[in-house]
Here is the input.
Amino acid sequence: MKGQGVWYVVVKTMVFLGIYTAFHYAYPLIHWPIFAISETPWEHLKIGFFCALLLALAEFVLFAGSRIHSWFRFLSSRFTGIILVPTTLFLFYYLSVALFGKIAPTWLKVVSVVFVTLLAGLTAFYTENECLELPFETKPSLLLLQVVILIITAFLFITFTYRLPYYPLFMEV
Here is the structure.
């Protein structure tokens, strides 16, 4: 699978935003730990992670029969994107806090958070798209490391859904 074009990245980001919004509001209807249970920053990072994971699974199903030429490159690129989504959400959100402080009124805060989510998706999915060109086949230990990071991340997101530690990242702002 060669790198997709810029439009693929943009469309994937828009789909990501739609799924992210659904995951944000789904918990009252479906009590799964992959959905946001509160307005804490941690919950927003969690839904970003699981949305990216769902998108990677959808691409796997969609492209498995025809367009994937290197499984190492496909998996490594998608794992890179999944790992980057919560990281870039965190960085861009707190960059906006550092630059602008508390954003008010509420409508402007919503617009800024949507913009941060779009920017995080674009960054992560552009990076994963570029990773399709890297020769990951020569570094199988990198794929193993990514799998370990994904497992630990999923474990932490699910565990801290039910047992919140007492730290600001887990409190509603």
Remarks:
- The chain has a mean pLDDT of 91.
- Residues 6-170 form one domain.
